[in-house]
Give the backbone structure.
Amino acid sequence: MLFLLASENNPVNHVLDAPVRIGGMEPYSGLTIQVVTLFVGLLAFMAVLLFASKNISTGHESLGHRRYLSRGRIAQLIEVISLYLRDEMLAPVMGAKDARKFAPFLLTLFYLILSLNLIGMVPMQDMQAITGTWIEDAQLAVVGGTATANIAVNAVLAFFVFIVIQVHGFRQLGVKGWLEHLCGGHELVAGPKGLWLVVPIIFVVEVLGLVIKPAALCIRLFANMFGGHTLLATLLMFGGMTWAGTESGLMTAGVTLLSGIFAVLITFMELFVAFLQAFVFMFLSAVFISLMSHHEEEHDAHELEGATAAAH
Amino acid sequence: MNIFLLANEAAGSSPLSFKLLPAFSTVVVFLVALGTFAFVVWPKIAKALDARDEKILGEIRAAEAAQVKAKAAQSEFEKRLEEARTAADDMIRKARAEADRQADELRTRSQRELEELRLRATQELESAKRTALAEIHAVAATLATTVAGKILKREIQPSDQKRLVDESLSEMTSR
């Protein structure tokens, strides 16, 4: 990253998407490195999860009781994460039945976002830049960047959540119930006529909420990933900026060392954020889906609001 | 510098600019990921987890059943032990009572026999005493008579003899 950042004066540029370049050309018009990273993330997602699922599944009877144990650390890790998310995170929010029903969708979101976040931490652009100097292709850029730092990627993921929330709402509440939900619920619509005055206000708020909820998911993930990588890039640029300003080797070394230490610490934090944001996206999706469930009750709503506030 | 050019080119775009290709790619990627996860990965994981749950629940149920059986066996054992203890206590009590009874009987019989023996001895002693006295009486009478006869030089009649003996005896007794 230092190699690239040394030539830049704006840390945001390093986090932004860029076209794929091979041999100084853009062979595929419009194709960007983050799109390629997206597919690399998909391959990583599939490879790890297919491998893990094979090793989690019940083994041959000849293994005896051990056939029920997951084989290998990756499989055990995936199993522990999946089990924890389903039984300890989703089930208390959605209920055991809905947790089982939506686990494939929500865990796909979690693992895909996690894959993209983690791949985004690998300095692939820098590795290509170094490789490019050897093969005399200084502009070489095929893959790299964090796909979840791309607003379009997150918007599509949030759109899928929006679709699931609304489909679940229609199936659970019916069209009439869904409209009542938008108007503040059956208690308000069928309640005293004096309260009808607030129905239009609630309707506007709820309709805006339909969009704001997934939009918040999209922007939160984007802001965290983009902001984190921008901070990291900023820290790593300090050395170059010091050299440009002072041309003092000693000072540049000192600043580079200090900013490097901070960059390492921020990288660890980014690793945590990669997991946290994947979890938050999935968990809030679960909360929003469960808000449309038929069994929604007042105290459940309060609990969910509390959970949402905690996740924020 | 080429990298600088690349950076400048990227700088032209906004972080919030929405591009169709990444969006469309995300649709494809997500659907493939969802399909893979929902139809291949998750069924295997869920099935394995359910099988393990069933296995664990089965083991727990079997352990609980074994525990119930063990408790029943233990209570049966304790019941039998209590019965055996009660029977043993009963036997000991009976034996002790029998021993006491036999001891009492033996003691009573011994005392009775001892008393009979004492009575018999006393009677025999009395009898012997009486016999001895009678013999002494007779000898003394004879002797006294003889002596008296000699002294008096005359024949003493049986009535005299008896009177003399009684007198002698009275004297002897008074002495």
